[in-house]
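Here is one chain, start to finish.
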Amino acid sequence: MASANRRRASSSSTPVRPWDYEVFLSFRGEDTRRNFTDHLYRALIQKGIVTFRDDGELRRGEEIAPSLLTAIERSRCALVILSERYAHSKWCLEELAKIMERRAEMGLIVYPVFYHVDPSDVRRQRGSYGEALASMKEGSLSNGHRGGGQL
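Its structure:
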């Protein structure tokens, strides 16, 4: 289930926006859901910013819901909360790939937020990010899939 604070103006003079959400929050639930992301989400709502946050918790073997991918497509910008174990999640990386695809194709604005990680570790794929991406490459290559690229 997803949360989205949505408000629609009833005035016919209000211009139609090409997006449903001003902000899409991308985060690793077990790292930040009950603390940083909750506080950020509440602050955005209090400021009247229409925000999408996935409230569902994916279990191993489940796929990202099509509604989540649609929410990315219908967002003006994405806040990607890069926490220590974000890159260890196949779903987070799939979500990030969709976000970056929309950035390239449609100009989606992307803001990285480094939560308890060194930005240079993410950029240079060191530390937990290097480990996670190396592990994914090995798993992908052994399964006959293409390896991942840089974040």
